[in-house]
Automatic annotation (TrEMBL):
Pfam families: AAA_5. SUPFAM superfamilies: P-loop containing nucleoside triphosphate hydrolases. Gene3D superfamilies: P-loop containing nucleotide triphosphate hydrolases. This is ATPase associated with various cellular activities, AAA_5. Residues 41-196 form the AAA+ ATPase domain. One of its GO terms (molecular function) is ATP hydrolysis activity.
């Protein structure tokens, strides 16, 4: 990503809230406090919450606020250490060995030569540790999708901002990376991981904050339309309506729905347009089917302007 001149972290929680807003991210004070303390204490921050509440977007906005590069480690089932930390360029090493053997190099000399940093392929963790000052923002996204051995592997990095490479030794951070871990809580993380992090549960935004997000992200939407979107989505997530769906719409779906309504020249949201655009709010066939015109009419009752 293109980088601006590195900046110092905001000096106060209020300044951080304002800086994040300028980057298009609307954080409430509790979240801003957690981020502020993570920056001041140089501790990783673990964000847990439902999909779509803005966990990943926070790391992206924070990288913009701090004018640091964003390095992302996307976790998944079966993620291996070599994909997260480093691996050797075996093809280049082999070529070097063949050339050296042709010159009569001995085995010990070969081992010293092939395990040099120029043959090291750096993956996200190592990139973050070796990023030049002021450092990087490392996003370890959806860490709950990885397995428990990978969690154990992360402990050295999370606790000491260092990693051990057998052929080279211990690699310590050049500049402490700002580290954000996210989890959708598909499974519980080990206590050892949580103890090394500050923790924040990120919930769906309150109506006013979501309205501000929609207004900022979809400036072509009128105040009335943005209000209808924020209120309708808030009701979808509330009881008893939430019981009808497998997964509530996230902030990204709210924004995308508002963009779609603007594209359709919608002035007032009605049951027909809700039914026609349900595939934007929901990504499950069953949820789309559950958002009937009758249910939409019930959801829209408080929205009469």
């Amino acid at each position: 990503m293109a980088m601006n001149t590195p900046t110092l972290p905001p000096p106060s929680i209020d300044a951080l809230v304002q800086a994040l807003q300028r980057a298009g991210y609307f954080a409430d004070r509790r979240l801003a406090t957690a981020v502020f303390l993570a920056l001041r204490l140089q501790r990783p921050l673990l964000l847990e919450g439902e999909p779509g509440v803005g966990k990943t977007a926070l790391a992206q906005a924070l990288a913009q606020v701090l004018a640091r590069s964003l390095i992302r480690l996307q976790c998944y089932d079966g993620l291996e250490q070599r994909e997260a930390l480093y691996e050797w360029n075996y093809a280049a090493q082999l070529l070097h060995m063949r050339a050296a053997q042709g010159q009569g190099a001995d085995i010990a000399q070969l081992e010293r030569e092939v395990y040099q940093e120029r043959y090291l392929i750096r993956r996200p963790l190592l990139q973050a540790l070796q990023a030049p000052a002021p450092g990087a923002v490392l996003l370890i996204d959806e860490v709950d999708r990885a397995d428990e051995p990978f969690e154990a592997f992360l402990l050295e990095y999370l606790g000491e901002y260092q990693v051990s490479i057998p052929e080279i030794g211990t690699v310590r951070a050049t500049a402490t990376p700002v580290t954000i871990l996210t989890s959708n809580r598909t499974r519980d993380l080990h206590d050892a991981v949580k103890r090394r992090c500050l923790y924040h549960w990120l919930d769906y935004p309150e109506r006013e904050r979501e309205l501000a997000i929609v207004r900022a992200q979809v400036p072509d939407a009128s105040q009335a339309l943005a209000t209808q979107v924020a209120e309708f989505v808030a009701r979808l997530r509330s009881q008893p309506f939430a019981n009808a769906f497998q997964r509530a719409p996230g902030i990204a779906e709210s924004v995308e729905w508002a963009q779609a309504l603007v594209a359709l020249d919608t002035i007032v949201v009605d049951p027909e347009v809700v039914a026609d655009t349900a595939g934007i709010l929901f990504k499950q066939r069953e949820d789309v089917a559950a958002l009937t015109r009758d249910l939409a009419l019930e959801l829209l009752k408080p929205l009469a302007l």
